[in-house]
Design a protein that fits this description.
150 residues; alpha+beta; three-stranded antiparallel beta sheet; two-stranded antiparallel sheet; 25% strand
Length: 150
């Protein structure tokens, strides 16, 4: 087990897929370790620190700044997912104020990244989108920011 990323109230741990590396046992190991470092000095009925297992990432890409990550999850809130679900945090594609083209391109690149597409394929997509914009093949509604004026 190896910590690959942590931020604020989250920790991302790489666990093996071999038999015996189940989420419950990993969670128990982490809880025991943290509780040994931070004992319940207040004598509460339950220890104030409780690590929960929320998601299992089939693949995870971590951005280089702040809390930015994207991945495909195959388990969430106690349920196995029939199809991996794409999730992301901290990228501008979640903002309402970006242009439709910004959102489309960022989501496409992030999906390609977590689906482990080759860099050459991602570069080709980016170059193709750049050429479409440069040639004027993208409508103004796709490159203008959405906002309200009062």
């Amino acid at each position: 087990m190896k910590v690959v990323y942590g931020h604020t109230d989250s920790i991302y741990v790489k666990i093996g897929t071999e038999k015996g590396s189940r989420s419950d046992s990993v969670r128990n190991i982490l809880n025991d370790h943290v509780r040994s470092k931070f004992p319940n000095i207040l004598g509460l009925k339950e220890h104030p620190i409780n690590i929960e297992f929320e998601k299992f990432y089939k693949t995870l890409g971590v951005g280089i700044t702040k809390n930015r990550n994207a991945g495909l999850i195959s388990w969430k809130d106690g349920e196995h997912l029939m199809e991996p679900e794409f999730v992301m945090t901290g990228f501008t594609a979640k903002r309402m104020s970006i242009t439709p083209l910004e959102k489309e391109v960022q989501l496409k690149i992030l999906r390609m990244w977590v689906e482990k597409e080759p860099k050459e394929k991602i570069d080709k997509y980016c170059n193709g989108m750049w050429n479409k914009v440069a040639k004027g093949d993208v409508g103004l509604d796709q490159i203008c920011k959405r906002s309200r004026y009062r």
